[in-house]
User: Fold this.
Amino acid sequence: MLQIGTYHTLKTARATKVGLFLVNETEEVLLPNKYVPAEYHIGDDLTVFIYLDHEERPVATTLKPYITLNEFAVLKVNYTNSFGAFLDWGLEKDLFVPFKEQARPMEKDKRYVVFLYLDEKTNRLVASSKINQFLEQEEIDLMVNQEVNLMVSHITDAGINVIINGLYKGLAYKNEVYETVSPGYKTKGYIKQIRPDGKIDVSFQKLGFEVIDDSAKHVLQALKDNKGFLKLTDNSHPEEIKTVLKMSKKTFKKAIGSLYKQKQIDLKADGIYLL
Assistant:
């Protein structure tokens, strides 16, 4: 079955006035003329995205949408009407978000984190900003210190809320994040703690001794990029260290301590020198 909302690699079968028909073992779908490659041969494989056109018929495109089935992404609202909101997802036909699937009323030109799912009643692709319902709350298959993929969902006073591996909800504390982030920001992270109630704390940096090694490498690279000198010392303000090196003062001190012991740097009153 040609699942809509996903990519498929299909064979080119026959050319018509309206486009190129692509087939698998049992089905065919139209690739409209505007998406047909300048050069192709019947029998060639072609990777396309399948979705429903304005008449609710499956159709293929070589355009790459910003989101695919069962994924999260940040999308902009193109317009709203009495039925809901319509998002720009990189294709001709906008992506629909009914009112009942809006965590709060969506507004034109604003961006929201949404999940793309298939409405089984209508067989249509629908987006939802009520993302918690699509995240696993109980069976958590993660380990402390595990490297994971993170996407920022929203930021609150409590911290930076993230989606872990597209499956779980997590939280990073603001005072432990040293880069500028916003909803949709993606990065590697690490599981810091899994609480008894299932809540997950994450870190944007490696934990324990490993972070010292990575931070030491970062300091060395910064020194090389700045002609072997950084105007930072033990007495530098934490915000200055955060601005220059994107790390906490605690991590900075451990990193330069490690480098000093390895005789890779010299620490003087005016700053750090590369040896």
